[in-house]
């Protein structure tokens, strides 16, 4: 079934709580019904498209003059399971943290470090979400969806997805063309735990032995202590990507600022902590109008109440400018800006 609405308010469909209007808003419960809708509504084929799940990584600056598509199919099923691993398919509308919980309860490892990341499964391969040293691509074996230009159902293997740091084929080359309908994950029943990032291991050991349940519990505890709940304070989690720079630049910064967090990124590169850069540039806890940098985590920009998308965007521009001036590092937004 498809439900098409016009001039639809997106205020409750983005975690910043920004008031924006979609020209068209379509909810759909299956890939087959989505294809049927587009076959019967040829005029919608030429509209600008935005694929929306929980709206947890979006900033609306203006209204959206096109069609917003929200896939609501939300099934999970085990394709194959043996003593060592499990192959699981989750549909696009499944809430991501519910999926993580579902996996941990069954002893399926690989996604526990990604607990409490907001959003739905459909956005996971697009953004290649990551946290605590793990990226989603490490467990994704296949992505299924529809090419809305041809109305063909298509699947992409892991290698075909062109995953990178917070990016993928679906975010760049196939943007607005390919909508994810389900993702197949290859999970392990003999997990190798990744606890080297930040204070994760220390937090895990507070609960006793190292296992999937305690890792998930620790990740949730750390995230809740630093990040505001989007249902209470409008935000989109990490607003900026952690910059990836050469080892030479990382070493030079380390010499000037010994406390700067620097993490190996392979191939002669290192990853810097954007939150640290923003804090040292003096922005942590600062407000500009109704937008502010969170007082506990400088990587998060919040809507204090009534902020416009433009107001939040302008604050982010000030931060980018100051970090560039102080460190000669240009921050890149992780949040997708709509209407700019």
Stated plainly, the CATH topology of the largest domain is called Uridine Diphospho-n-acetylenolpyruvylglucosamine Reductase, domain 3
Strand runs, count: 20
Note the main sheet. 5 strands, antiparallel
Strand order of the largest sheet: 6-7-12-10-11
Strand content: 25-35%
Tally of helical segments: 8
Number of domains: 3
Helix-and-strand structural type: alpha+beta
Q: Roughly how many Å apart are the termini?
A: 33 Å
CATH architecture verdict of the largest domain? 2-Layer Sandwich
What is the H-and-E element order?
EEHEEEEEHHEEEEEHHEEHEEHEEEHE
Q: Any idea what the radius of gyration is?
A: 20 Å
CATH class assignment of the largest domain? Alpha Beta
Judging from the principal axes of the Cα atoms, what is the shape?
globular
Oligomer: single chain
Helix content: 10-25%
Mean pLDDT: 95
Key descriptive features of the protein:
Uridine Diphospho-n-acetylenolpyruvylglucosamine Reductase, domain 3, globular, Uridine Diphospho-n-acetylenolpyruvylglucosamine Reductase, domain 1, alpha+beta, 340 residues, Uridine Diphospho-n-acetylenolpyruvylglucosamine Reductase, domain 2, 4-stranded mixed sheet, 3 domains, 5-stranded antiparallel sheet, 20 strands
